[in-house]
């Protein structure tokens, strides 16, 4: 459980840093780009993927490039969602992206569903709708539109990454090797975009902050994977604990650090979201 708690803390700390540093004049795009530099190095050092024997012809490069584009884009959407909607709603949307991933698994990968999984998906979708409704009832029209778009981008974006990673693994490419290649591609594409754009001054502080973000971002992934390895007979416990802990830590940080108010739709959405995660975890355990 210590590994899962550390992974959840890393995830929430990424959100806290993104939210705080943008207010202090740090450049989100530069932080996101350098985040993938340290994440790439740590991924290679920790997992030691077999890059030497990679097949240039058989590797689905279009998938690697697609994920390399999507990841920094989602990170930017995450920063916007934290700014407009707050950390509580953003964490709920991010964690409930699993609902869309499971729907894709049913329609595209022909995964079998039982009653508990259907309940989990239904509760998850209802939870997201409540969170979006709560945003509409607490913001001006302009602010509300921005927040809803950002939340939906986070929800759909993280699901898209999960779906594409599952598809990539189904082609026979190792998870760790795929992840390393995606991080490297995301770094190259992000830096290339910044060089072409030429509208931002390079900031050393943003680069350092980005490298720290990369450490936290990778720690979240590495510790979560490690927990799955150590508790290989109880994947449902790891899945449920991680998602529920991130939501609870997100609530705590939002309420304590940023004085975010939990209106009734958001509170109900959180409760339904946690219930959905528990249903999905129980379905995995069957």
UniProtKB/TrEMBL annotation:
Pfam families given in the database record? EamA (PF00892)
Keyword check for Transmembrane, yes or no: yes
Q: Where is the signal peptide?
A: none
UniProt keywords (A-Z) are: Membrane, Transmembrane, Transmembrane helix
Protein's name in the database = EamA domain-containing protein
Every copy of the EamA domain together lies at 2-132, 147-280
Q: Which residues cross the membrane?
A: 28-47, 59-81, 93-109, 116-135, 147-165, 177-195, 207-225, 237-258, 264-285
Q: Which PANTHER family match?
A: ACYL-MALONYL CONDENSING ENZYME-RELATED, SOLUTE CARRIER FAMILY 35 MEMBER G2-RELATED
Q: Which organism is it from?
A: Acinetobacter calcoaceticus DSM 30006 = CIP 81.8
């Amino acid at each position: 459980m210590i590994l899962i708690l550390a992974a959840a803390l890393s995830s929430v700390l990424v959100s806290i840093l993104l939210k705080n540093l943008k207010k202090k004049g740090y450049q989100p795009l530069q932080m996101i780009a350098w985040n993938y530099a340290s994440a790439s190095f740590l991924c290679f050092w920790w997992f030691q993927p077999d890059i030497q024997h990679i097949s240039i012809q058989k590797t689905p490069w279009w998938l690697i490039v697609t994920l390399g584009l999507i990841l920094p884009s989602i990170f930017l959407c995450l920063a916007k969602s934290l700014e407009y909607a707050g950390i509580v709603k953003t964490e709920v949307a991010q964690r409930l992206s699993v609902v869309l991933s499971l729907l894709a698994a049913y329609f595209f990968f022909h995964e079998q569903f039982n009653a508990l999984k259907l309940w989990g998906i239904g509760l998850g979708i209802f939870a997201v709708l409540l969170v979006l409704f709560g945003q509409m009832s607490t913001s001006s029209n302009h602010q509300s539109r921005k927040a809803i778009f950002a939340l939906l981008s986070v929800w759909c974006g993280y699901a898209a990454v999960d779906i594409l990673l599952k598809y990539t693994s189904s082609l026979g490419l190792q998870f760790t090797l795929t992840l390393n290649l995606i991080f490297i591609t995301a770094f190259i594409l992000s830096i290339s975009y910044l060089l072409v754009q030429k509208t931002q001054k390079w900031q050393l502080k943003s680069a350092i902050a980005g490298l720290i973000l990369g450490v936290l971002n990778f720690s979240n992934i590495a510790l979560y994977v490690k927990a799955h390895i150590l508790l290989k007979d109880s994947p449902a416990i790891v899945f449920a604990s991680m998602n529920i802990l991130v939501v609870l830590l997100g609530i705590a940080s939002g309420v304590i650090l940023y004085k975010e108010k939990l209106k009734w739709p958001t509170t109900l959405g959180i409760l339904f979201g946690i219930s959905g995660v528990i249903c999905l975890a129980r379905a995995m355990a069957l």
